[in-house]
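Response to reviewer comment R2.3. The reviewers asked that we include at least one raw input/output pair. We reproduce the pair for MobC-like protein here without editing.
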Amino acid sequence: MTTANASQDGKAHLTIRLDRATLDAFDALAEGRGGRSALLRAVLAQVLRQAADAPLMQPQAERSTNRVTISLTDAEMAVLETRAAERGTDRAGWVKALTRRHLGLKGSVDAGIRESLRLVRKQLQRIGRNLNQATRAGNAVALADNGLQIEGELRRIIEMRQEVNDQIVALGEALRSDLNYWKVAD
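Raw output as returned:
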């Protein structure tokens, strides 16, 4: 559970519930770094910098109070728990996201996954550029005809570059088709 409250001094207070082991690990990390609050502020600032390009969702104007109750078999509940865990959410969050997506409303619970994929894709693109530069340098050496046998190495670089390009394409497709996960047959 997370709550945020504004105080009269214009600052907000954030309260979260964590398991004891996570809090102990965080405290150990915060020791010598200004304590919990200072480390948490630094972590939040870093996340916000990294997510600067990410699309933002508007905060909910009102708290939802409507409830729906469903009965599931043990097998259905097991599948629900597995799917929720795969998406990094709890059962209720997964059902809400699926329902909202089916209704045509917001429903993506995997913004973190999408951001991670985006960052991996950017890193692969950088690696691809480095491989292109290595290929060009290798070709320049080969053209100089100075007796070096680098054709095999150039082939390996070209193969690596192709593999990186394939992975960039695959990640791009994953980012574009991510919402297909939430599509439901009518």
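Residues 111-143 form the longest helix (33 residues). Residues 145 and 158 are 20 Å apart (CA to CA). Further pairs are available on request from the corresponding author.
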